[in-house]
Specification:
There is one protein chain. The chain is 52% helix and 8% strand. It has a domain of 60 residues. α4 crosses α6. It is built from 11 helices and 3 strands; from the N terminus they run αββααβαααααααα. The N and C termini lie close together (11 Å). The protein has a 3-stranded mixed beta sheet. The chain has 205 residues and is mainly α. This is BTB domain-containing protein. InterPro entries: BTB/POZ_dom (IPR000210), SKP1/BTB/POZ_sf (IPR011333). It comes from Massarina eburnea CBS 473.64.
Length: 205
């Protein structure tokens, strides 16, 4: 992501490249230096002589959200206005997109947005399964989901009805978290105390 306003102006002067997304090849047109600013994967894909990128395995709706973030550093209105479950689903797809494209800044933005939904709803069993099946053990999102059950499960007993649907690794993480936690108190929720523990270091990104 351009570090200064001057860098951003320069990025907006760069060439336009075509990004073909999905099996139906929906075309997005994006500035080269914007598209390659925070993703090493896309930077490598955009060689100096390349005028297009093909992403056949991605969905246009997920790329559209990413493209909006690249330009405005926010979520588009269509994502903000969703009900909480649909918003969480969209955010999780966005995080997985960021993981595939090795975009740490995007992942950090998305995980912060996920945390903001926890005042309404904690993750469902299906959302837990998605995260644990597609992300590695050291993933901050996996840690956040386990912590949400360790510290927030007592406030919402609906998860207990579907706990058997959750992956074994998740249940182990929750058990270890319960064994290590102190007496429950609201301020102990780690995402409220320091959400930085779920963000990745961007120093070398």
């Amino acid at each position: 992501m351009p570090a200064t306003p001057e860098d951003r102006v320069e990025a907006l002067r760069s060439d336009i490249v075509e990004v073909s997304v999905g099996p139906n090849s929906q075309i997005f047109r994006t500035h080269r230096d914007i598209l390659s600013a925070t993703s090493p994967f896309l930077k490598d894909a955009l060689r100096a002589d390349s005028t297009s990128v093909t992403l056949p395995n991605e969905t246009p709706i997920d790329f559209e959200l990413y493209d909006h973030w690249l330009y405005f550093h926010t979520l588009p209105a269509r994502a903000i206005n969703l009900d909480v479950r649909a918003k969480q689903d969209a955010l999780l797809r966005a995080y997985l997109f960021g993981a595939r494209f090795v975009d740490i800044l995007y992942k950090n933005f998305i995980i912060t947005s996920v945390i903001e939904t926890f005042h309404k709803k904690y993750p469902t069993a299906n959302q837990v399964k998605l995260v644990y099946e597609q992300l590695p053990p050291h993933s901050p999102m996996r840690r956040l989901f386990a912590d949400s059950y360790v510290y927030g499960g007592a406030k919402d007993d609906s998860w207990a009805k579907t706990v058997e649907q959750c992956p074994r690794d998740f249940l182990i993480d929750v058990t270890m978290g319960l064994m290590g936690r102190k007496a429950p108190e609201k301020k102990a929720c780690p995402w409220l105390v320091d959400k930085g523990k779920y963000l990745e270091d961007v120093t070398n990104a």
